Amino acid sequence: MKKNKKLDDRTTVIPDLRGKSYFGLFLLLGILLLLLSVAASISFGSASMSLKMAWTAIFNFDPELTEHQIIHALRIPRIAADIIAGMCLAVAGAVMQGYTRNPLADSGLMGVNAGAALAMAVTLVFLPGQLQTTTLLVSFIGAGLGAGLTYLAASLNRSGMTPQRLVLAGISITMLFGAVGSFISLNYGIGRALAYWTSGSVAGATWVEIRLVIPWFLGGLALSLFIARSITVLNLGEEIAKGFGQRIVLVKMIATLAVLLLAGVAVALVGPIGFVGLIIPHIMRFFVGVDYRYIIPASAIYGGALMVVADIAGRLINRPAETALGIIFAMIGVPFFLLIASKERRAFK
Amino acid sequence: MNVVKSHKATIWILSLLILLIAGAILSLNMGKVSLNPLEVFQVLLGQGPDEHNLVVYKFRLPRIVLAILVGFGMALAGAVMQALLRNDLADPGMLGISSGSGLMVLLIISTVSIQGTAITLLLPSMAFLGGLLAAALIYVLAYRKRRMISSTRLVLTGVAINMGLSALSLFLTLKLDDQKYEFAQRWQAGYLWGDKWSYISLLAPWVLLLFAYILSNFRTLNVLVLGNEISIGLGVAVKKKFLRLAIAAVGIASGCVALGGSIFFIGLISPHVARKLVGHDYKVLLPTSALIGALLLLVADTIARTVSFKSDIPAGIIVTMLSVPYFLYLLMRSK
User: Where are the alpha helices (DSSP H) in chain B?
Assistant: First the structure.
C-alpha cells in the first residue's frame, strides 16, 4: 500500500484529465442505460410481457405461470449471456488495445475467433450431439489456441512484437484455421451448421452455460481491473514503463491471460463476434480519458449495454427471423474501423 | 555482377518453366482414372481410345491449364500490388478483390438457380465485376485529395472492406439451401470450377495481354518500390502510372478469381519466393513469381484431384495450408 502511494506521486505523468465525479456520473449513466435495455429486452419478444410481470417473475417466481417460465427459462439467460459476452468482449478489447498499443486490436483480429470456430468444426464432426458444456469447453480451448499461436508468431522475432506484425499474424492464423475449418466442413457436410454458429447468436443460451462461464468471466474481469493501472503505464511506451520500474513481462502475461479468459468466454457463449471489442474502448477513451482504471470498468458497463441493445435490434430487423449479432456488429463496426484507421494510422508507421 | 545475376535469373526462369511443363505432364497422368504416360502420349498424338480422349481433353487438360493460368495471374497481381503498396505482405485477397467477387457470386446464386446455360456466363462476369467494384471502393475510401496514396491506408481500408463484405456474404449464405451453400463455400475456398475450354479461351488472352503490359513497365515498378518522393524525383508520373498498373493488377486478379474462386496466398507467397531466387529487379521478378504461382497452384490442384477425400476439396484450401506456415516463418524473420 505504502509502495503504491509512493508510485502515485511519481506517476503524475499519467494524465488524469477528467475528474472522478465526472467518471462516476458517466458510469452511473451507463448502468442506467444497461438497466433500461435489460427491461426492454425482457418485455420484448414473440410474447410481449409487461415489466411488472418480469419483476414478479424474477422476485416472486411462480412456476404455474407460463409467462414466468418463459422469462425464467428463456429471456433471462439470454440477457445474462448478452451482458456477460458484451462485457467480456469490450474489456478484452480495451486490455488488448492498451498493452499492445494497437488501436485496432480486437479479439476478432487476433485469431481468437478463428480458433474457436475451428474447434467448433471439430466438435460438430467428431463429438456430435455433445452436451453444451463440452461444446463450451472446446470452443474455449480453441480460442486459447488461436490467440496463443497468433501471439507466438507475432512475437518470435528479434525486434519483438509490433502492432502491424500482430495484425498480420492474426490474419494468417485466421486464414490457416479457416482453411482447415472449411476442409473439415466440406468433407463432412457441416457447412451450414457451422455458418449458423459463426454468425453469432445468444438465442440458445441456458442457465447451465451461464453458471459454467461465470467463474471464468469474473476471473478475467478481476485480472483486468487488477492490472488496469499497469496497462495505463505500459500504454505510454515500454521505455517509460521500464523507467517506472514496471515488470513488463509479468504485466503482459497477466494481460494475455485476462484477454484469453474473457474472449474465450464470449466466443463460447455467443460465437465469434468481432468489433465490440474495437468500438467500445474507443468511445470510452473519448469520454473518460486515457487512464485504464477508468476505461476498463466503463467498457464493461457500456459493452454489456451495447450487446443487449444489439440483440434487441437483431430481433427487430427482419422479423420474425432473427438477424445474427455478427452481422449487426459488422455493419456498425466497419465504418468505425475505417474512421479509426484513418485517424490513428500513425501507430502503423 | 549484374551480368552474373541476370544469367542466374535466366537459369531460374528456364528451370521453372521446365518444372512446370513436367508437372503438367505428370498431373495429366494422375487422377481418379489412372492413365499411364504412354496412354497420355497416345492421346496427345491423337491415337488414343475415345474414353481416354474424353478424360484428357474434357477433364484433365482444361483443369491443368486453368490451374496454371490462375496461379500465374494471381502471383503476378500479387507482385505488382506489393510494389505499388511498397508492402511485402500485400496480396489480392487482402485487398478485398476476392471478397468482392465472392459477394457478387453469392448474390447471383441466391437469386438465380445454379443450373442453366445463362448462369455459366453470368457467374464469371459478375465475379469479375465484383472484384473491380471492391477494389474501386477501397481506392475511393483510401483516397485523399492533394495527397499521395498512403499504402498503410490502402491496406487498412482493404482489411475493413474485406470484413464488411464477408459479413454481408455471411448474411446471404445463411439463407441459401444446402446445395447452393456448398457451391458458395467451395467458391470462397478457391475451387477451380471454370475448367471449360470456353472460359479458358477468354481468360488466357486476358492474363497474357495484361502480363505483357505489366512486364513492359518493369522499370516503373522498380522505381515505384523506392517510394513516391524518389519516383517523382526520377521523373515518373507517379499517380498516372500507379493507377494504370493498379487497374492492370486488379483486372488480372478479378479474372482469375472469377474462374478459380478466392485463392489467397498465391499472390502473397510467390513474389516472396521469387525475390529469394532472383532478387528485386522486376524484369525478372515478374516472370519468376508468375511461374512459381502457376507451379504452386498446379501442385495444389493435383493433390486436390488425386488424393481421395470424402468430398471434392478446393485447391485454395490446400494452397493456404501449404503456404501459411511459410508466411509465418517470413513474418518471424522480417525486420
Answer: 2-29, 37-44, 50-53, 61-84, 97-111, 118-142, 151-173, 178-188, 197-216, 218-224, 228-233, 238-260, 266-278, 282-306, 315-333
Grid look-up 476498463 returns: A296
A–B CB contacts, 8 A cutoff, strictly below: 129
For an interface test with A, the pick among B98, B144, B150, B185 (most A C-beta atoms closer than 10 Å) comes out as B185
Q: What is the ipTM of this complex?
A: 0.80
Q: How far apart are CA A3 and CA A226, in angstroms?
A: 16
Count structural domains, chain B: 1
User: Higher model confidence: residue B101 or residue A341?
Assistant: B101
Q: Residues B152-186: pLDDT tens digits? A: 777 778 878 888 888 888 888 888 887 788 888 88
Q: Do A330 and B164 touch (CB under 8 A)?
A: yes
- Give the nearest chain B residue to A170 (CA atoms): B328
Q: Are the Cβ atoms of A186 and B185 closer than 8 angstroms?
A: yes
Q: Is A49 helix (H, G, I), strand (E, B) or coil?
A: coil
Q: What is the extent of the structural domain holding B184?
A: 1-333
C-alpha distance from residue B118 to each of A319, B108, B113, B260, B261 (Å): 34, 11, 10, 19, 19
- pLDDT bin (cut points 50, 70, 90) of residue A40 is confident
Per-residue b or e along B274-312, where b marks 16 or more CB atoms closer than 10 Å to that residue's CB: bbebbeebbebbbbbbbbbbbbbbbbbbbbbbeeeeeee
A331 in contact with B at a CB cutoff of 8 Å? yes
- Residue B112 reports pLDDT greater than 50: yes
**Per-residue model confidence as pLDDT tens digits over B228-263:** 677 777 777 777 888 889 889 988 988 888 888 877
* Residue ranges of A 221-250 with Cβ closer than 8 A to chain B: none
> What is the model's pLDDT at position B2?
52
| Cα–Cα distance for residue pair A172/A66, rounded to 1 Å | 49
Q: What is the mean pLDDT of residues A124-131?
A: 77
B190–chain A nearest CA distance, Å: 10
Angle (deg, nearest 10), helices A292-316 and A76-100: 140
Residue A269 vs residues A96, A204, B36, B273: alpha-carbon distances, Å: 20, 9, 54, 42
Local confidence band at A347 (pLDDT 50, 70, 90 cut-offs): very low
Contacts of B176 (CB under 8 A, 6+ apart): B106, B109, B110, B184
Which domains, and CATH codes, for chain A? 74-340 (1.10.3470.10)
Half-sphere exposure of A164 (CA within 13 A, CB side): 19
Q: d(Cα A28, Cα A301) in Å, to the nearest integer? A: 9
Distance in angstroms (rounded) separating the CA atoms of residues B73 and B11: 22
Give me the torsion for CA of B209, B213, B215, B218, rounded to 10°.
-170
pLDDT value of residue B70 = 94
Interface probe with A: pick from B172, B312, B321, B324, most Cβ of A within 10 Å: B324
